[in-house]
Amino acid sequence: MSGFSIDLFGAPLLPGLEGADDILSADEEAALIARIDEQALSPFKFQGWEGKRLTTSFGWNYDFEKGTAARAAEIPDWLQAIKARAAAFARLPDGELVQALLIRYDPGAGIGWHRDRPIFEHVVGISLGVHAVMRFRRRIEKGFNRVSAPLAPRSIYHLSGEARYEWEHSIAEMEETRWSITFRSLSTRGRRELYIEPA
Question: Residue 108 pairs with which residues in a beta bridge?
Answer without folding.
Answer: none
